[in-house]
Fold this sequence. Notes:
alpha+beta, Uridine Diphospho-n-acetylenolpyruvylglucosamine Reductase, domain 3, five-stranded antiparallel beta sheet
Amino acid sequence: MASNWAGNHTYEATAVVRPASVAELSEVVASNEKVRALGTRHSFSDLPDTTGVLVELAGLPEVIEVDPGSLTVSVSAGVTYARLADQLARGGWALANLASLPHLGIAGAVATGTHGSGDGNRCLSASVTAMDLVGPDGETWSTARGDADFAGSVVSLGALGVVHRLTLRVEPAYEVLGTQFTGLSWDALDGHFDEVMSAGYSVSMFTRWTDQVDQVWVKSRDGRPPVGGLYDAVESGTTLHMLPDGDAGAVTGQREPGPWHERLAHFRWDATPSHGAEIQSEYFVPRAHAPQAVAALRRIGRQLSGVLLTSEVRTVAADDLWLSGAYDQDVAAFHFTWARRPEAVHAAVELVEEALMPLQARPHWGKYFSLGSCVLERVHPKLTSFVDLAREVDPGGKFWNGFLQHRLGDVR
């Protein structure tokens, strides 16, 4: 059976099917007892898995239709952000933000609350204005902003049906300038966390939680790097990969303005993203607690060093989506790229969770974490409401799986 992108999870499903139409997708869903959608396989756990049939969305006919009047684009669920961004840019349109990897499928990224960075930028799911799904009986249904349960249906973890089409907000195309800095001291960050994270339209810090912040990537929409530099950090004269042994050729362009779709993501769509053989974890901490989270992670930095490749810190603006990591509050997102050593990663994740959970951290649903439903109920105020919604939409639990059972509880 196939495995996920990182190779750390092998799917247990009895079959993987690739419907070529929505009608065929409906037939597959209706005729099987257990079904889950499978996107670009970038989840680092058994989140997409099932004891039944996995449905690949990439076989659905491609749809990318911009409506200039409503400033939206309708797109089929199997399309990747790289493909969508390229097509939008050709027509003079843009998305407000992108994740680090443009390789991601849109439906999967939306369903897990995946995000980019920027004080004013919400997660990618917040750009959704409507969705079309196939329900447990094979019938199609739709939800749109303004509907009673829309805010609970977007970051759905695949529990409400198989999404086959989404409508997203767009805006006129723009340019982005990327500037990389090295060697930001902890003292500078301690005194200026908010200023550093607001130095551009999108800001990412990379560190191993030991000596310093190794790199800061600032992406601006005004065509100018941060005025006066970035405290005691030094502007890099060459393009950097965030990993010491990473290929800088895989990174999107720096030091000169370029089209948004070639600058906002960290990695080129035609290159291997990040390290490749890795496991990822991430936690959203209320923005007000970010300095405390930095201090807590610095205290355990040496203990993480044997398995941590790098850690990225970003900010995400609040939204109203029930299971979003930024539901009802601005957050700082603490991301960890681990070597693909599952036992060592599990031990490291437990250390990170012990450090961050007192600060009301929420895990990224698509990354690796160890928390169960008892803990998650305390940090996700709408989790019980979401389970009730899933029970209403899918009373037989066709789309429920082991991951959801452990993290959210019993839907039946």
